[in-house]
Amino acid sequence: MASDIQEISDKVQSENVFIAELKNELGKVIVGQEELLDRILVALLGNGHVLLEGVPGLAKTLTISTLAQAIDAQFQRIQFTPDLLPADLTGTLVFNPKESKYLVRKGPIFSNLILADEINRAPAKVQSALLEAMQERQVTIGETTYPLPELFLVLATQNPIEQEGTYPLPEAQLDRFMMKLVVVYPSKDEERVILERMSQAVKPHANAVVTPQKIAKARAVSDSIYIDEKVKNYILDVVFSTREPENYGLKKLNGMLRYGASPRATIFLTTAAKAFAFLNGRGFVTPEDVKSIGPDVLRHRVLLSYEAEAENVTAEDVVKRVFETIEVP
Fold first, then answer.
1. DSSP 8-class letter at 246
2. pLDDT band at 275 (very low <50, low <70, confident <90, very high)
3. How far apart are CA 147 and CA 16, in angstroms?
4. In which region does residue 100 sit, left (phi positive, over 0), alpha (psi from -120 to 50) or beta (all else)?
5. What residue spans define the domains of the chain?
6. Structure pTM?
7. Is 129 buried (19+), middle (13-18) or exposed (0-12) by CB count in 10 A?
8. N or C: which end of the chain has fewer CB within 10 A?
9. Sign of the alpha-carbon torsion through 127, 128, 134, 137
10. How many angstroms separate the CA atoms of 290 and 279, rounded?
11. CA-to-CA separations, 201 to 69, 109, 197, 198, 206, in angstroms, rounded
12. Which of 91, 85, 186, 89 is CA-nearest to residue 145?
């Protein structure tokens, strides 16, 4: 077993060399936000989608477009508005009078990296079209089904401040996202660098240092990373404690939770922990990997009761209490 883990570690260390170069390239444009970049790379390696929440102006769009430049991938930004139609995302059939037949016009969703800007501003039909593509990784136009690219990552944003005229994502659809990341303001020193870097006429630009094929190889290695039975049990305890808190020493959470995390949380927590281990050059998952990535996987999967909201208890508080209470192997 030890020799197998060593073999996997050797593979990881040879395959993750590009991570440092990729981060360096992203750092030429993006100031700070190391945790955000790490989480997006985890999603990229774990083949999962990300929901970004933060006020305007925190470089969410710039981060995604810069990542697309650095991995030589196609990027599309879709601004979600109340008048958007599902066909505006997926594409449609267009009649060609010269040939007297319908031609397929594919929509912007047929790209590698999709930025769904302000996803909660579009009506349910549009949200559903995007989320179906995320889940099935295919789109049906007319009578034909078209597969999406192998490298396909959706990063959706929503603004936590203004809720008027929005269509909040239902909990079942939120569950499709591997992680929900909260984007915070930069520090004063970081903002000074932003001031000096972005106020110039010539803006910084990232060069392509990785290919989608390299990402696919890294995904295969990340998927093979060893995870011990004790760590698997730890993941299960964490998830089940959100459903049955009284059985895990969390009696204070009784009555605070309407629903706990779904089985998708277990799957995504395992996948994300493996990808996080890959980023750190290890061929095995540690409990610390699970604790580091866990809040991002769980925060949008814990549904609070009215009692919790009345007491100003947040999902962040619940997840924090879970990780403080569940015994680490």
1. G
2. very high
3. 28
4. left
5. 30-216, 225-325
6. 0.87
7. buried
8. N
9. negative
10. 13
11. 20, 32, 10, 8, 16
12. 91
Q: 225-325, which class in CATH?
A: mainly alpha
| Under 8 Å between Cβ of 177 and 51 | yes
Q: Is 172 exposed, middle or buried (0-12, 13-18, 19+ CB in 10 A)?
A: exposed
Please provide the DSSP assignment of 86-118 as one string.
HHHHHEEEEEETTTTEEEEEE-TTSSSEEEEET
Class of the CATH-defined domain 30-216: alpha beta
Q: Give me the sign of the Cα torsion angle 141, 146, 147, 152.
A: negative
CA separation for the pair 136, 139 (Å, rounded): 8
Instruction: Give the whole-angstrom CA distance, residue 303 versus residue 300.
Output: 8
Work out the burial of residue 165: count CB atoms within 10 Å of its CB; fewer than 13 is exposed, 13-18 middle, 19 or more buried.
exposed
pLDDT, one tens digit per residue, over 254-274 is 778 888 888 999 999 999 999
What is the SS3 assignment for 184?
coil
Token reading at 319: 């997840």
Query: Count of residues for the chain?
Result: 329
User: What residue ranges in the chain does DSSP mark as E strands?
Assistant: 50-53, 75-79, 91-96, 101-106, 113-117, 138-141, 144-147, 153-158, 179-182, 257-259, 303-304
Q: Tokens for 265? A: 């949380």
Burial of residue 262, with CB atoms counted within 10 A of its CB: 0-12 exposed, 13-18 middle, 19 or more buried? middle
The DSSP code for 284 is B
Which tokens go with 95? Answer: 């009649």
- Nearest Cα neighbor of 126 from 152, 178, 75, 87 is 87
Query: What is the Cα–Cα distance from 17 to 20, expressed in whole angstroms?
Result: 6
State the Cα–Cα distance between residues 127 and 80, nearest whole angstrom: 9
